[in-house]
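Researcher: Here's the sequence for the chain we discussed earlier.
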Amino acid sequence: MIFWITASALALVAFAILARAVLRRRDTEEHPAAFDLQVYRDQLKEVDRELARGLINDGDAERIRTEISRRILAADAQINARSQSGGDDARTGPWLIVALIVVLLGGSLLGYWLLGAPGYGDKPLQERLAQAQDRLDNRPSQAELEARLPSAPPITPSPEFMELMDQLRDKVAANPEDVQGLELLAQNEESLGNFRAAYQAQVKVIRLKGKYASALDYTILANMMISAAQGPVSPEAQEALRRALELKPQDPLARYFWGLLMLQNDRPDMTFRIWQDVLRDSPPDAPWNAAIRSQIKDLAWFAGVEYTSPTPPATADTGLPGPTTLDMDAASDMEAGDRQAMIRDMVENLANRLATQGGTPQEWARLITAHGVLGETDRAASAWAGAQSAYAGAPDALAVLRDAAERAGVLDR
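Model: Thanks. This is the structure I predict for it:
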C-alpha cells in the first residue's frame, strides 16, 4: 500500500507540473509587437515635443505622425491576431492534458506490468526474514525431494566393475556390521550415481561408529543426500551438516553446504558471510571455490557490502596433474553427475601415474587432497601412507604432504 501511495503522489506532482505548463496561455507572454507599440507611442510624444521647440515644422510633424500611426495600426493588428488564436489554445489545452495523462499513466502501468511484480505486497525486513525462516522450517524432506525427480539414466561401468560391485554388496549384506565394507560400498555406489544407496550405506557407517563418527563422515553423508536430491539441502542433510560443524566448526565443505542452504531459503546475506570466509580459508584447489566465485559478488550486493574477490594464489594451478582450479571452473556448469565423473577420472589418472611412476611431493599432496574432498577417506589415507614412504628422508617434502593430509582429515590415521 505504501508503494501505491508514493507512486500516486509522484504521479500527481508530475501531472500538475505538466498541466500548469500546458495551461499557460501564449498571450500571457508579451508579444514582440507590444514592445514596438510602446516605442511608437513614445515617438508620437517626441514629435510633439520637437514641434513645440521648433525643431521641425507642421508639415514634417504631420508626415511623421502619419507614418508612426500606420506602424501602430500594424502592431495592433498583430496583437489582435494573437488574441484571436488564443481561443484555439484554450480549447486544445485540456485535451492535451488528457492525452498526457493517458500516455504517461498508461505507459507507466504497462511498464510495471511487464517489468514489475503486480500484486506483490509490501515486505518489511522483519516480515521477509520471518518468511525465509518459515520456508526453511517447512521445506520438503529428503524423500519428498527425491520423489519429485525424474529417473536418472543409469551409469554403465565395465562388466568387471559391476561384478566386483555385486560381490561387495553380497559381502556387506552378509556382514552388515563391517564398517570398512560399508564405507567402500557407499563410495562406490556414489561413483555409480546410486546416491540413495550411497547415503543409506553411509547412515549405517555413522550408526556403527557411534560417538567415534567424524565430521568428515557427516559431511560425506550430507554431500550424498544433496546429490541424491540434485541440489537442494533437505532437513536431513542439514542435520548431518549441523553434526559435522559441531565436531569441526571450520570444515570448509560443510560450511559451503550450509551457505548453500541459506541461499536456497532466501538468505543470500548469510550465504555471503559464510562463503567469503570459506573462500578465504579453503585451499586453492578446493572444488567449491569456482561455485563461490561465480556468485560472491551478487551475494555481496544483497548483503549491502562492497566486495572484491581475492585473487587466487599463483601456485593454485601449477601444471600438476589432477583437477585444478581451472578444471573446477570448467566443470562448474556441468551436471552434478558429469562433474563428479570428470573429477574422479582426473584423480584416478593421477593416482595410477603416481603408483606406477612416482611423482613430486606436490603431486602426492594434490592426490591426498582430492581424495579427501571426494570423501574417499581410506584412499586419502592410503595415498598419505604411500607418500610418506616415498619421501621418508625429506622433511620439506613431508611438510607439504602433512598439510595435505591434515586438509583431508587423515593426518592421524
